[in-house]
Amino acid sequence: MKTIIVKIVLFASLFFAFAACSNDGEVRETDVTAVKKLYEPNDGRAIILKASDNASVYFEWEPARAEDNGGVLYEVAFDKQDGDFSNPVYLLASDDNGAATSATIKHKDLNRIAALAGIESAQQGTLKWTVYSSKSYKAVKAEEERTLIITRLAGFAEIPEQLYITGDATEAGENLAEALIMKKTDKGIFEIYTKLTEGKTFKFVSSTNGTPEEYSVDGEKIVLGGTNTVAKTGIYKYYLDFNIGAFTMKEVTKVSLFLNWSQKKIELPYKGLGLWEVTNQNITGLSGNDNSDDRYKFRMESSAGETEWRAIRNDSKPTGDASYYYMVEKNNVEQWTDNEVWKTPSTTGWSDKTYDITFSLNAQSEYTHNLVIK
C-alpha cells in the first residue's frame, strides 16, 4: 500500500513538474511553504483501535502555499516515537489523491502503521506524525510534529498462509480433505462466498491435512479453536483479516445483471461454489436506447446494502481476452460508471435474443463472469 501511495503522489508531482517547464523544456523548481499548523488530532491523543471497517481517525492541517499559487500535494508521515522523519515508517497521501488538507485514516491502517513502528499486537505505544507539502520535486516537512498514543488490535502472531472453511454447514461437508479454499486477497486476508446451512456448524482451518490450526469467529473477532453455528440458511461472504484479528460477514440475497440505459435487472440464481447462473434467458420488449445501449454490469443485494460489480477498467466490446470479464466490487451504486462497464457482443441490441449468463465468485479463480448469446 505504501508503494502504491508513493507512486500516486510521484505521478502527480511529475505532472506539476511538467506544467512548470519553460518553453525550452527546462524544468523550473517551484517553491512550496511548509504547513505551519496541525489541527487534528490533538497532540498526545490516545486511541484504542477498533476492528470495524468504519472506524477511522480524521487528520487535518493548515494549507501550504505554492510559489505559483497552484495546487499543493500532501502526505501524512508517521515515525517511531524517537524518530526524526529522516526515514518515516509510513507515508500516506491525503484525501483526494493528495490534494486535500485532510486525511481520513482507517483504524486497521493505523494498526499496520503501529506494527511497522514496533508496537506489539494488543499493546500501547506512541507514534509521531507530521505532514509533508510538495510541489514539483520538492517536499517540505511541516513546522509542527504531534504524537498519537495507539493501542493496537489483537492480531495473530502466526498468520496462516492459506485458509479453508469446513464443517457440515458448508457446501463441501465436514471431510477435512474436501474443505473449501478461501481466496487470499493480501497477506493474512481471506474471503469466500459460499452457502451455509441453518443449524449446522463450520470452522476455518489452515490446512486440509494433518492437524491444522482451527479458528472460529466471536463478535467482531477471529478466535483460536471453536466452531460457529449457522442461524439461517443463505449465501454468505466471510472476510477474515488475521493482521487485525477481525472479520466481517454479509448475507448475499440477490445478484442481477444490470443494463445501464434501461436499468433492467435480470436475477441470477445461486448454483453453488460461488457461482450464480441463468440459462436460456430471453430478453424482449426493449426499444430505442433501452435496446441499443450495450453497456451492462451487475448489482448485488445483501444484508450490508447494495453494491455493484464492475469492469476493472473497460468501456469497450469484448476483446477475446479472459481478463475482459474480470470484476471488482464497488460500494457506490450509480447508473453511469464510465470505464467500469462491459458491452454486449451484439451489434443489434439486447431484445429478442436468448442468453446464458454466469457470475463467478469462486475462490479458486479470478472473480469473473460470462455473457453468451445463443
Care to describe what's here?
With 374 residues, this protein is mostly beta strands. Strands 12, 13, 18, 19, 20, 23, 24, 25 and 26 form a nine-stranded antiparallel β-sheet that branches. It folds into three domains: 2-151, Immunoglobulins (Immunoglobulin-like), CATH 2.60.40; 164-244, Immunoglobulin-like; 252-373, no CATH class. Helices cover 9% and strands 42% of the residues.
Shape: flat
How many E-type strands? 28
Spatial gap, N to C terminus: 43 Å
Number of domains: 3
So, CATH architecture of the largest domain? Sandwich
Mean pLDDT: 91
* Low-confidence blocks of residues: 1-27
Radius of gyration: 25 Å
CATH fold annotation of the largest domain: Immunoglobulin-like
* Percent of residues in beta strands: 35-45%
SSE blueprint:
Layout: H1 2-19, E1 38-40, E2 45-48, E3 56-61, E4 73-80, E5 90-93, E6 102-106, H2 107-116, E7 124-135, E8 138-141, E9 146-151, E10 164-166, E11 180-181, E12 183-186, E13 189-196, E14 201-205, E15 214-218, E16 221-224, E17 228-229, E18 234-241, E19 246-259, E20 265-267, E21 270-272, E22 275-283, H3 288-292, E23 295-302, E24 305-311, E25 327-330, E26 342-343, E27 353-360, E28 368-373
Short summary of the structure?
The chain has helices at residues 2-19, 107-116, 288-292; strands at residues 38-40, 45-48, 56-61, 73-80, 90-93, 102-106, 124-135, 138-141, 146-151, 164-166, 180-181, 183-186, 189-196, 201-205, 214-218, 221-224, 228-229, 234-241, 246-259, 265-267, 270-272, 275-283, 295-302, 305-311, 327-330, 342-343, 353-360, 368-373. The chain is mainly beta.
